[in-house]
């Protein structure tokens, strides 16, 4: 991305942010729902990007953490607790479950986290479905209230979209700070070369575990927003396919890029909607599009951008070298 | 006791089918580091190809042959050339994600072009019961078990007793050295993809009469095969066989002795225990760490 001049980058970023605030003002209910869903899924995908893109661990349970957050929020808010309190509980719960899950898995061997999370994902689904006393079983939980902030009700789609967008902004800033902190650098060291990181004195297991638990906690936040967004939850949306979808979002957007989850979630949430006019074919076309994209660029959309930037930089640099060389020759 | 005996036979029959699918899964992993998340859909599709052939007027035996051949072209040849070959050198994960997309694509295509409803599928084994040691056992279970065991024995004989099998193993274990001693590695990899396609088509033929042909039936199957492969040992064909049989039996016993609600949880908890205490799988070799 450093190919852009910095002011241009800032201007572009500001334009996107203002666009996200202003343009949806005259969207209909469905458009706002889809856009809110994009914001929520981006948060979950950002969490997975921390685990996968920065710490190099595959988690197949991010959808289960979204489920844990959603059920925590649904149960608490229908019992009269405010949403922020419920989200705090969702964060603590997903972080703790992630830690307990990751601790034994990472003890054994590196890539076993993927297998353990695969099993956990289905176990969590079974608990959501079978423990009806807590989760309402297959009938789910309905009438989930949307919160009031400073006396403003967010029942209508537009105010709640701003709640989702605001949460996305807060989470983005936190993640931005995290990956620039020494912790974030340690995560990347784990991905690039775990043995070297270990020999440099980084407690690899603890940092990997931390990245996974923080990533899971972000899944919990996404779930905490998902419940009031749909106002009704049942176990079906939180099965293994959500975890696989989220994994697909991270890879398609570009794992290890800060903006990857934003683009990946956009493709996964918006592209099927745009393809709706093809009726029964839309998911098929979506699947083909994802396969073609990955064949073209296995590092995702931002991988393409990254490569063009790098190519341009090399070209510019070699042009400069050529100029410098010819100057040297004329001086001599 | 008769109940337990029935459960064991039924469990072994489903387990033998899981084993077929899991063996194909580990073969792809060993020769080309492909983690095929569409393996369940690979089992679901051939039954529909056979049904389509029958709808077009082909007799059952011809439909079976056509279905198996078409599967080998689509799920073997086309899968390898169009998706795996261009992505193989980019590492395990992008290819695994692409197979997830492929799974969605196959599911949706079947739903769109065939039916969203479950269709019945004829059994190649006669239905009914026979009496073994005073127990009435379903002929279908016995037939499935026998056919699956024959297929597995055929495959292990091919791998361990023929020159072709040795070449395949060499290509999987050390492609560089295999190439030096003149093994056509590329052709061997293609062969494993064709064998996988044959195995899933056979599994499809055996399992669909029991569970009906439905576009979504691949999800459960794929996961069962994946778990069987990990439990048995990801890098061993005999591990996948043992894992498949074990998961099939566990699943059936759990359904009647634990609870129907949590029957699916038993193989998963077993999987977690195996990972904790024997991470290389029950019969697997520990993988060396590469720097």
Automatic annotation (TrEMBL), chain A:
<keyword id="KW-1003">Cell membrane</keyword>
<keyword id="KW-0812">Transmembrane</keyword>
<dbReference type="InterPro" id="IPR043428">
    <property type="entry name" value="LivM-like"/>
</dbReference>
<feature type="transmembrane region" description="Helical">
    <location>
        <begin position="33"/>
        <end position="52"/>
    </location>
</feature>
<protein>
    <submittedName>
        <fullName>Branched-chain amino acid ABC transporter permease</fullName>
    </submittedName>
</protein>
<keyword id="KW-1133">Transmembrane helix</keyword>
<dbReference type="InterPro" id="IPR001851">
    <property type="entry name" value="ABC_transp_permease"/>
</dbReference>
<dbReference type="Pfam" id="PF02653">
    <property type="entry name" value="BPD_transp_2"/>
</dbReference>
<feature type="transmembrane region" description="Helical">
    <location>
        <begin position="246"/>
        <end position="271"/>
    </location>
</feature>
<dbReference type="GO" id="GO:0015658">
    <property type="term" value="F:branched-chain amino acid transmembrane transporter activity"/>
</dbReference>
<feature type="transmembrane region" description="Helical">
    <location>
        <begin position="7"/>
        <end position="27"/>
    </location>
</feature>
<keyword id="KW-0472">Membrane</keyword>
<dbReference type="GO" id="GO:0005886">
    <property type="term" value="C:plasma membrane"/>
</dbReference>
<feature type="transmembrane region" description="Helical">
    <location>
        <begin position="83"/>
        <end position="103"/>
    </location>
</feature>
<feature type="transmembrane region" description="Helical">
    <location>
        <begin position="283"/>
        <end position="305"/>
    </location>
</feature>
<feature type="transmembrane region" description="Helical">
    <location>
        <begin position="110"/>
        <end position="128"/>
    </location>
</feature>
<feature type="transmembrane region" description="Helical">
    <location>
        <begin position="207"/>
        <end position="226"/>
    </location>
</feature>
<feature type="transmembrane region" description="Helical">
    <location>
        <begin position="160"/>
        <end position="179"/>
    </location>
</feature>
From TrEMBL, chain B:
<dbReference type="GO" id="GO:0006865">
    <property type="term" value="P:amino acid transport"/>
</dbReference>
<dbReference type="InterPro" id="IPR001851">
    <property type="entry name" value="ABC_transp_permease"/>
</dbReference>
<keyword id="KW-0813">Transport</keyword>
<keyword id="KW-0472">Membrane</keyword>
<feature type="transmembrane region" description="Helical">
    <location>
        <begin position="91"/>
        <end position="110"/>
    </location>
</feature>
<keyword id="KW-0029">Amino-acid transport</keyword>
<protein>
    <submittedName>
        <fullName>Branched-chain amino acid ABC transporter permease</fullName>
    </submittedName>
</protein>
<keyword id="KW-0812">Transmembrane</keyword>
<feature type="transmembrane region" description="Helical">
    <location>
        <begin position="60"/>
        <end position="79"/>
    </location>
</feature>
<feature type="transmembrane region" description="Helical">
    <location>
        <begin position="6"/>
        <end position="28"/>
    </location>
</feature>
<feature type="transmembrane region" description="Helical">
    <location>
        <begin position="189"/>
        <end position="212"/>
    </location>
</feature>
<keyword id="KW-1133">Transmembrane helix</keyword>
<keyword id="KW-1003">Cell membrane</keyword>
<dbReference type="GO" id="GO:0005886">
    <property type="term" value="C:plasma membrane"/>
</dbReference>
<comment type="similarity">
    <text>Belongs to the binding-protein-dependent transport system permease family. LivHM subfamily.</text>
</comment>
<feature type="transmembrane region" description="Helical">
    <location>
        <begin position="262"/>
        <end position="281"/>
    </location>
</feature>
<dbReference type="GO" id="GO:0022857">
    <property type="term" value="F:transmembrane transporter activity"/>
</dbReference>
<dbReference type="Pfam" id="PF02653">
    <property type="entry name" value="BPD_transp_2"/>
</dbReference>
<feature type="transmembrane region" description="Helical">
    <location>
        <begin position="224"/>
        <end position="250"/>
    </location>
</feature>
<feature type="transmembrane region" description="Helical">
    <location>
        <begin position="130"/>
        <end position="159"/>
    </location>
</feature>
<dbReference type="InterPro" id="IPR052157">
    <property type="entry name" value="BCAA_transport_permease"/>
</dbReference>
């Amino acid at each position: 991305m450093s190919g852009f001049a910095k002011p241009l980058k800032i201007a572009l970023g500001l334009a996107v942010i203002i666009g996200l605030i202003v343009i949806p003002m005259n969207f209909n209910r469905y458009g706002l729902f889809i856009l809110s869903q994009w914001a929520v899924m981006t948060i979950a995908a950002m969490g997975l990007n921390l685990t996968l893109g920065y710490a190099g661990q595959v988690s197949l349970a991010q959808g289960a953490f979204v489920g844990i957050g959603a059920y925590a929020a649904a149960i608490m808010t229908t019992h009269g607790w405010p949403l922020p309190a419920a989200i705090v509980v969702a964060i603590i719960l997903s972080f703790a479950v992630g830690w307990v899950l990751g601790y034994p898995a990472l003890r054994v061997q590196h890539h076993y986290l993927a297998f353990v999370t695969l099993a956990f994902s289905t176990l969590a689904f079974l608990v959501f479905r079978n423990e009806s006393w807590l989760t309402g079983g297959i009938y789910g939980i309905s009438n989930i209230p949307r919160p009031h902030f400073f006396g403003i009700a967010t029942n209508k789609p537009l105010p709640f979209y701003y709640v989702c967008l605001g949460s996305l902004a807060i989470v983005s800033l936190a993640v931005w700070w995290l990956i620039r902190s020494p912790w974030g650098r340690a995560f990347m060291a784990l991905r690039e070369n775990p043995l070297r990181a270990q020999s440099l004195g980084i407690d690899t297991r603890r940092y990997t575990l931390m990245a996974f638990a923080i990533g899971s906690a972000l899944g919990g936040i996404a779930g905490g927003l998902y419940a009031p967004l749909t106002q009704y939850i049942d176990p079906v949306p939180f099965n293994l396919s959500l975890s696989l979808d989220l994994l697909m979002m991270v890879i398609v957007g570009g794992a290890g890029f800060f903006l990857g989850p934003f683009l990946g979630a956009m493709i996964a949430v918006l592209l099927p909607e745009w393809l709706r006019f093809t009726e029964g074919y839309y998911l098929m076309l979506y699947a083909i599009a994802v396969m073609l994209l990955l064949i073209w660029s296995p590092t995702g959309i931002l991988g393409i951008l990254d490569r063009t930037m790098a190519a341009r930089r090399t070209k510019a640099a070699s042009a400069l070298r050529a100029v410098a060389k010819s100057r040297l020759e004329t001086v001599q | 006791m008769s109940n337990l005996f029935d459960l064991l036979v039924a469990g072994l029959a489903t387990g033998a089918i899981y084993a077929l699918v899991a063996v194909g899964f580990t073969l792809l992993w060993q020769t080309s580091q492909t983690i095929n998340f569409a393996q369940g859909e690979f089992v679901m599709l051939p039954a529909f190809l056979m049904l389509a052939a029958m709808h077009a007027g082909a007799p059952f035996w011809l439909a079976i042959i056509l279905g198996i051949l078409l599967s080998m072209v689509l799920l073997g040849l086309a899968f390898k050339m169009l998706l795996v070959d261009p992505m193989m050198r980019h590492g395990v994960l992008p290819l695994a994600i692409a197979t997830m997309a492929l799974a969605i694509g196959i599911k949706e295509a079947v739903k769109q072009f065939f039916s969203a409803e479950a269709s019945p599928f004829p059994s190649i084994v006669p239905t009914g019961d026979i009496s073994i040691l005073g127990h009435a056992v379903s002929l279908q279970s016995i037939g499935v078990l026998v056919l699956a065991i024959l297929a597995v024995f055929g495959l292990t004989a091919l791998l361990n007793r023929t020159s072709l099998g040795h070449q395949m193993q060499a290509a999987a274990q050390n492609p560089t050295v295999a190439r030096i001693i003149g093994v056509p590695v590329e052709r061997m990899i293609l062969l494993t993809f064709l064998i996988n396609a044959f195995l899933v088509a056979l599994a499809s033929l055996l399992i669909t009469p029991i569970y009906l042909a439905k576009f979504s039936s691949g999800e459960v199957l794929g996961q069962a095969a994946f778990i069987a492969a990990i439990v048995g040992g990801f890098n061993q064909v005999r591990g996948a066989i043992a894992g498949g049989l074990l998961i099939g039996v566990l699943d059936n016993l759990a359904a009647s002795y634990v609870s129907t609600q949590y029957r699916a949880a038993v193989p998963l908890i077993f999987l977690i225990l195996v990972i904790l205490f024997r991470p290389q799988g029950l019969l697997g070799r520990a993988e060396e760490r590469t720097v």
